[in-house]
Amino acid sequence: xxxxxxxxxxxxxxxxxxxxxxxxxxxxxxxxxxxxxxxxxxxxxxxxxxxxxxxxxxxxxxxxxxxxxxxxxxxxxxxxxxxxxxxxxxxxxxxxxxxxxxxxxxxxxxxxxxxxxxxxxxxxxxxxxxxxxxxxxxxxxxxxxxxxxxxxxxxxxxxxxxxxxxxxxxxxxxxxxxxxxxxxxxxxxxxxxxxxxxxxxxxxxxxxxxxxxxxxxxxxxxxxxxxxxxxxxxxxxxxxxxxxxxxxxxxxxxxxxxxxxxxxxxxxxxxxxxxxxxxxxxxxxxxxxxxxxxxxxxxxxxxxxxxxxxxxxxxxxxxxxxxxxxxxxxxxxxxxxxxxxxxxxxxxxxxxxxxxxxxxxxxxxxxxxxxxxxxxxxxxxxxxxxxxxxxxxxxxxxxxxxxxxxxxxxxxxxxxxxxxxxxxxxxxxxxxxxxxxxxxxxxxxxxxxxxxxxxxxxxxxxxxxxxxxxxxxxxxxxxxxxxxxxxxxxxxxxxx
Amino acid sequence: xxxxxxxxxxxxxxxxxxxxxxxxxxxxxxxxxxxxxxxxxxxxxxxxxxxxxxxxxxxxxxxxxxxxxxxxxxxxxxxxxxxxxxxxxxxxxxx
Lengths: 496, 95
Description:
The complex is a heterodimer of chains A (about 500) and B (about 100). Chain A is built from 17 helices and eleven strands. With about 500 residues, chain A is α/β, with parallel strands linked by helices.
């Protein structure tokens, strides 16, 4: 088998190939490292490539296979978002302030993947501290989306964000799958922009231990892959209770991959009428209706539902998330880790370290968060936002009393070009209008590639489920994936 | 509610972020744009609603209040910008 075809495999088929000894993990890993070398200078999807480590892990996987030992991900090469601490491998969170940081420990999620035999190709680029929807806020440069506009081949498109490197790497076939994190849409929106599948599981499904914190009541890890089933395989390894994260749920991890084969016949699917936005392209509305028709054809019952507080999701988020980030990011003080800028005294050292270390978007959010938590404004902003958050959760709870899952667009647009939406922070924030409400409620949501727009760019549909019912989300997403039958490939990819 | 320059400066001090005077006006405009947009939450009737602090709809687990970790100063200090022995070094605080 040639290197090119090895990078086209899904995780599910690569596992079978490794088991049958059609190829080795070393061959699979070398094929991916070769295309990373060829394409990453352009895509910038990886901040750090750990080739030697990857080959050592691949050799260990091959030795395990030779002994007849197979774990769920033995020998499968993955990209790890640079927000997950990796023992002995630099972890930057996309920020200058963590440029020299080498964690002395492994995050719970990445440790689970290693336990299950995965090979880590390197650390994926991302918006700084996961704050952004385009990967343009990374201190390590923007990431290119491997898809091109049919009419405008010159435009360099963004991969979405914040997990932009993860999504771009999987789409370009320089990684078989990747980890991401999602606070307000950071897995689902880049998955939609790059034409790959990605799921934000229920808050609490994966341990947050060892993930650089942004907004702790919202942050959740999840996988990217080129198929729904591959996402299910990855999530099965990533998930599980961890005593080191008190918010990680002590509930069994079901067989997610089996759920992808479940029939959707008889399921009740809700279509939330508020998931529309001024200026949303007609292509997206049409795709949504096609998705409804596919599920109806598969035997699901489709009903209209209302989530009346949807429009307040964004503004609620832009109080809650900055408030939590201003607390979480107070640890970056130039004393214990990260960069240090000298100052006249300790306070000046703090202030200059943070001014140099944080980019413009992070600074903005820390300042907003500091303000809404400050004396005199706490009730007016923060407590009020928490009350609206309760109403958003109530919307979902009431909808899920009537339906098994919701179907909506993932994002209000296809991928835009680098530099677009940059003049006004609020314009960028609107990208997450359809993903944020589910984040506020803590429910699982998956973006599945469902079609192309008039420019030939991928568009995702979002399946939102009940808390801890990722199985239904996988079943519905897999049904959409089968019906959509997308064969289009990104222009920039391994073997192209 | 609109932030004046003195308030922007005060927030930056609370957040321990150094700002040059030249940066202030642009930042003030951005912050006011965001805060103005956030004002739309005032339309929502939240009377009698309990604030929701997190997305985990379950009681947090408790464990024995005992030390379960520690004893590796080298690992803890490995990323320090400046250290002396087993200590982090900062500019002199007390004269």
